[in-house]
Amino acid sequence: MWRTVLTYGVVLAAGALGLRWLEYRLLMHAHPVEAYFGIFAVACMGLGAWVALRVRGRPDPGPYRFNRQAQESLGVSEREIEVLALIAAGHSNKDIARRLAVSPNTVKTHVSNLFEKLHVQRRTEAIARARELRLIR
After folding, report:
1. CATH number (domain holding residue 127)
2. Do 114 and 83 contact (CB within 8 A), yes or no?
């Protein structure tokens, strides 16, 4: 008895799936642009919801307080803190040199010293590490 019911259930499910597939194919032939835009819209909506949950789920870091102890323990100078803040603002070495009235080679030296002191290899890593240590905002 159960075998018969199960067999009919599988056959009906396969038939319903086949009809849905056929309906989808006809829909894609009749309205392909609208269907693709609909799929794209649903994907963007899902991505937006995921990003919102990730951003909203972060804890509030609280008020910013400069960590003088970390600065002293790492041996980072005030000038290097200025350079680090300008790097975090997205400025190039030439822009930083102009703003601080120094040569680009001096900026490169400061950046190299920062990399060594923060134990990083890239500017983005330096910014992230400095924010962790509360050396910059």
Report:
1. 1.10.10.10
2. yes
Is 61 contained in some domain?
no
Q: Is 0.90 surpassed by the pTM of this model?
A: no
Contacts of 59 (CB under 8 A, 6+ apart): none
Q: Which one, of 80, 109, 112, 107, lies nearest residue 96 by Cα?
A: 107
Residue 20 has pLDDT above 90, yes or no: no
Task: Please check the confidence at residue 28 and state whether its pLDDT lies above 80.
Answer: no
* Count of structural domains, the chain: 2
Q: Distances from the Cα of 114 to the Cαs of 2, 27, 89, 98, in angstroms?
A: 73, 59, 16, 19
pLDDT (0 to 100) of residue 67? 86
Q: What is the pLDDT of residue 58?
A: 66
Which residue has tokens 């499910």?
A: 13
Domain that holds residue 76: 68-132
Residues 7 and 39 in one domain: yes
